[in-house]
Write a structure and sequence with these properties.
Blueprint (H helix, E strand, L loop, with lengths): L6 E4 L4 H17 L3 E7 L11 H14 L4 E7 L2 H11 L4 E5 L5 H7 L2 H8 L3 E5 L7 H27 L9 H11 L2 H30 L1 E2 L2 E2 L1 E3 L2 E3 L2 H17 L3 H19 L2 H6 L10 H33 L1
Parallel strand pairs: 1-2, 1-4, 2-3, 4-5
Antiparallel strand pairs: 6-7, 8-9
Length: 324
């Protein structure tokens, strides 16, 4: 019988989880404790057994065995935080070891809040291991570039209207904005629609998936599961992007092309939000690898904003040349 109560640690196969597992193994080796490794997924496990779950648990068990630690693995369906807490309660654990990923406000929004939920509901002590930096400079930089690009487009519109003599812009801002939009060239209007649709959809999608993960639904929106198959939102995103993009190529109507920019932006946003899943070929949306989707989305927003500004500058340049 071990001298210390069991230790529980969760894993999803990510680098961050590996650090937490290694820490739990070191503690168990010194304390002579048994370790319970938990893997949980929100989706029903497909048949044959999930190919990602087996390596995650097997690698964790190997880490324990290499140190001579007694280990037991648990594969659960449901919220990862709840699964960890449940196993700890069932096994009478004395300690839960978990990584700090997702502890910051931004981390909770982007990657979920498993460490926070575990620390609030655990039936025993919790050790939060520093498995990642408190700030991801690459992601923060992309966020700054995306925000600056989008803001520059908005500020550019205000300055353009002000220079055209719209003295009552503050009082009649909507009318002035619509008049300025109608006066813009077709290419610029299409890019503005694409940018607005992309940014708005990206924000709503990331927020809705976070809420669905916590409560099971976001208004009328919920996860679509058909048997063992989970329908990800990149599926309608790809369909929407293909249809709207293809229609824009074959149509001769300038007005229709401008309107198709909106569904194209929505489709691209839905697809890029799950870019990491398409890249890794397994569901990593809420894991450490899932941050790739956030980076790609922010980078695309920055690019679209820069393209919109570029089109506007070229338009201004043409106007000045013609004026000469």
């Amino acid at each position: 019988m071990s001298a210390f109560a069991p230790i529980v640690v969760g894993t999803d196969g990510s680098d961050s989880a590996t650090i937490a597992v290694r820490t739990a193994a070191e503690l168990a080796e010194r304390l002579g404790a048994r370790v319970h490794v938990v893997f949980a997924t929100l989706r029903p496990p497909p048949a044959p057994p999930d190919r990602r779950r087996a390596p995650a648990l097997a690698n964790a068990a190997s880490e324990m065995s290499a140190r001579g630690v007694d280990v037991e693995t648990h594969a659960r369906q449901g919220d990862p935080a709840e699964a960890i807490v449940d196993v700890a309660d069932e096994q009478g654990a004395g300690l839960i070891v978990i990584g700090n990923r997702g502890m910051s406000r931004g981390g909770r929004f982007l990657l979920g809040d498993v460490p926070n939920k575990v620390s609030h509901h655990a039936p025993c002590s919790v050790m939060i291991v520093r498995t990642s930096e408190s700030s991801d400079r690459g992601t923060v930089l992309r966020a700054v570039l995306a925000g600056a690009s989008v803001a520059a487009v908005g500020v550019g519109e205000v300055v353009r209207l002000w220079r055209r003599g719209s003295k009552d812009a503050g009082r009649q801002s909507v009318e002035v904005a619509m008049a300025g939009y109608r006066a813009a060239p077709a290419a610029e209007k299409a890019m503005l629609r694409l940018l607005a649709a992309f940014v708005t959809t990206s924000a709503i999608t990331r927020r809705s998936t976070w809420v669905i993960r916590r409560t099971g639904r976001f208004g009328p929106i919920r996860e679509i599961v058909h048997g063992p198959r989970h329908i990800h939102h990149f599926v309608p995103g790809i369909v929407l992007a293909f249809l709207s993009g293809g229609a824009a190529v074959v149509t001769n109507s300038r007005t229709l092309r401008e309107r198709l920019a909106i569904p194209l932006g929505i489709g691209v946003a839905l697809t890029l939000d799950e870019w990491a899943l398409l890249l890794e070929l397994h569901d990593v949306y809420w894991s450490e690898e899932g941050i790739v989707s956030v980076r790609v989305t922010l980078g695309t927003a920055a690019l679209l904003g820069a393209l919109t500004l570029g089109l506007r500058l070229m338009h201004y340049g043409e106007q000045r040349l013609l004026a000469r």
